[in-house]
Amino acid sequence: MLDRLREAVLEANLEIVRRGLVLYTFGNVSGIDRASGHVVIKPSGVDYERLTPGEMVVTDLDGRTVAGNLRPSVDLMTHLALYRAFPAIGGVVHTHSEFATIFAQAKREVPALGTTHADYFHGPIPVTRDLTTEEIAGDYVGNTGRVIAETFAGRDPMAVPAALVASHGPFAWGPTPAAAVHNAVVLEAVAKLAVHTLMLAPSLPPMPPALLDQHFLRKHGSQATYGQGDDC
User: Fold this and answer.
1) 177-200 and 2-18 helices cross at what angle (nearest 10)?
2) What per-residue confidence (pLDDT) applies to 230?
3) Suppose 215 and one of 48, 118, 167, 190 were both cysteines; which one would form an S-S bond, judging by CB atoms 3.0 to 4.6 Å apart?
4) Considering the domain boundaries, does residue 229 fall inside one?
């Protein structure tokens, strides 16, 4: 299982490069084996071109390295905070993708303006509050994850599987590392659409709730009709 997870996490990290979500060594993807509590994450500051499955770092949920010779991503404790807060997720991705980061730096949520957004996110993609001076000076990386979890109090993190950290950038997640990357790619696409839409129509309200529900639930609801089903 751990070898398969290392391979999946490596492939997910390479996918964010292929999809143009990262520059240089920006960004990181992790995955978790819930049975063992082990997390696999990209090593810190290593070029994507040279990564191998064996260079993926394995830690426990307290951040202790249990396998690997390299230091884990500096964002490890954010990933761990999300795994603890959201039991349904199996992968986390952090990038500084251009349009999602524009919204994060503007401290604005990505509004649900159209059906492309609604196919993946059941509502706006929220932005966190600013971290306090004390939170930044203390466990900054862990507190970044905690402020995301705080933002989702009373919300379903699987219905809107992404968040913008104010002044920082996007995090996305999913049931697997590959699904987390898929959501990060779509997040960037809908953020780009929103930026350009709001340039044309700055006062445009969010899409009608009925249309939002129709598009999200036909793909993700208990009666979803999109695709060919689990048996195909």
Assistant:
1) 20
2) 52
3) 118
4) no
